[in-house]
Write a structure and sequence with these properties.
The protein is mainly α. The chain is 74% helix and 2% strand. The strands form two sheets. Strands 1-2 form a two-stranded antiparallel ribbon. A two-stranded antiparallel ribbon has the order 3-4. Helix 3 crosses helix 4 and helix 6 packs antiparallel against helix 12.
């Protein structure tokens, strides 16, 4: 823990600087990758892409983003039991960098190997760097919330860098191209690793050792199990690349989405029915279930940004401003910019509502966020209709959509994390956060499956896709809104000995 008298970074523990810039560069590589994936996979062979169908590319995109979140669960366990946070972040960053280096080589075979390597590295780094931010502060340190706000700014700064740099390199096919963009992500991660290593002493021992280390025998068994799983993964990947087995991305995405959903239901039900919960705890978990459903539905729509909306920006948006053509990927940076601009407003909004004794239930806030996000697809419905008539649409359609999606995100995402922290029974807090992460994975994979219904050569299909997403999300939002009026009573059934104090650090321990 860092005391208030230590050297500071914007008034925060100096170790925050180390984690801020490491996370910034890691997010630069992740979001740059997120922007490139579908565009690269659907580009023709003549354009240097893979020439995949939109259905396959979108399914792979969903599997990639969903797996990144899912792998945070074993990644957090490895840190807590085997490595400690510092080593987990270090090795995770190295693995991510190696994955991007593999992606920088123009080969359709190594491309998928690179994707898997990046997923493994991100699962090891992402949850543990967030956990170490919380460990920089003592329980009495009042700077924790503002420290996480600064850390979150690093995430958004990294995303803007990723979209800007990788988007520009991708667009300039004559001088650079796809693999320069993938390579830039590797350079960004390398910069983060160098900075991390050189300033590691500023962490003052935070994350230096596992929080709950296993016995020597337990460690041997664990490493042997991890090694066996990696060998199995390598064997299946090799067989798929050589054609020994045929893997259909859409079918795999469907099975994974079903598997994650079943996993979520079984784990949630096991805690609800067999967790020896009090009556009040069961009521609060009932209210929390509405938040989880809203989260899965929200991300299934929001993550269209990297798939169908990315393709729409490339093919049907007039990106010419004067003599300059806006790179396709730059539109995705709007989300990060809007977050930076709007976050202070929403923080003040919830505080002022609380002062006026108007504090909507968690489910109500999440339902509103889901419906605001859905309204963004109503905007895209009209934009797609213009595109279907043969015209390229103005950029402000996408700007308006990303604005609405960001407003929805700020209504739902931080509120959902706070709900998990407050409403979960204390003894199941970590497990419930892990269960909640599954809603991110489920939403991302479903997003890819939905985007696969869009054929770029049939833009007339796109209005139907967007209006279906919008109407479904609004319908789910209305149901959650109605149920949440009753869940308001359930939330208030909590008492101090059952509830846990909401802390942003708890969210970051998993995310």
């Amino acid at each position: 823990m860092t005391t208030q008298s230590a050297k500071t970074f914007f008034g925060q523990p100096e170790g925050l600087k180390t984690l801020f810039f490491t996370e910034m560069w890691e997010r630069m590589s992740y979001y740059g990758m997120r922007m490139l994936l579908v565009l690269f996979m659907t580009a023709t062979l003549q354009e240097g892409g893979l020439g995949l169908t939109v259905a396959s590319a979108a399914a792979i995109y969903g599997l990639y983003t969903g797996s990144v979140y899912f792998m945070g669960l074993p990644g957090g366990w490895i840190s807590d039991r085997l490595l400690g946070g510092q080593k987990a972040v270090w090795y995770g960053g190295i693995i991510i960098m190696c994955g991007h280096i593999i992606l920088a080589f123009p080969s359709d075979k190594t491309f998928f190997i690179g994707l898997i390597v990046v997923i493994l590295g991100t699962g090891l780094l992402k949850p543990n760097i967030g956990a170490m931010v919380g460990q920089l502060y003592s329980d009495e340190d009042k700077r924790r919330d503002s420290g996480y706000a600064i850390y979150y700014m690093g995430i958004n700064l990294g995303s803007v860098l990723g979209y800007t740099i990788c988007g520009y390199l991708m667009e300039d096919q004559e001088n650079f191209g796809w693999h320069w963009a993938f390579g830039a992500a590797a350079v960004g991660m390398a910069a983060g690793l160098i900075q991390y290593r050189k300033t590691l002493n500023k962490l003052h021992g935070v994350g230096a050792a596992p929080e709950a280390p296993l016995s020597p025998k337990g460690k041997q068994i664990s490493w042997a199990t991890i090694g066996a799983l990696l060998i199995m993964l390598a064997t299946v990947t090799s067989a798929a690349l050589t054609g020994a087995i045929i893997i259909e991305p859409v079918a795999v995405a469907q099975y994974v989405a079903i598997s994650f959903s079943i996993m979520f239901v079984l784990y949630y039900a096991s805690i609800f029915f067999f967790g020896n919960l009090t009556k009040n705890e069961m009521k609060r978990l009932g209210a929390l279930l509405l938040v989880c459903i809203a989260s899965a539905c929200f991300w299934s729509g929001f993550e269209q940004a990297g798939s169908s909306m990315n393709l729409f920006a490339r093919d049907y948006t007039d990106r010419i401003v004067g003599s300059f053509e806006i790179p396709t990927g730059w539109f995705q940076s709007l989300n990060a910019m809007f977050i930076v601009l709007l976050s202070p407003f929403f923080a003040a909004l919830w505080i002022n509502l609380g002062k006026r004794f108007v504090s909507p239930a968690y489910g109500i806030k999440c339902a509103i966020g889901l419906m605001i996000m859905a309204s963004g697809f109503i905007v895209m419905f009209f934009a797609a209709q213009y595109a279907a008539s043969g015209m390229k649409v103005a950029p402000y359609w996408l700007v308006a959509t990303y604005f609405l999606h960001t407003v929805g995100e700020l209504c739902l995402s931080p509120v959902a994390l706070s709900a998990i922290s407050k409403l979960s029974p204390r003894r199941f807090a970590g497990q419930m956060m892990g269960v909640f992460v599954l809603t991110y994975s489920i939403g991302n994979i479903i997003s890819g499956l939905l985007a696969g219904n869009f054929d770029p050569n049939r833009v007339d299909q796109l209005p139907n896709l967007y209006i279906q997403i919008s109407l479904f999300s609004i319908g789910i939002g209305i149901v959650i809104l109605l149920l949440s009026f009753k869940s308001r009573i359930w939330e208030n059934a909590s008492d101090e000995k059952d509830a846990i104090t909401p802390t942003p650090g708890k969210a970051a321990e998993t995310l």
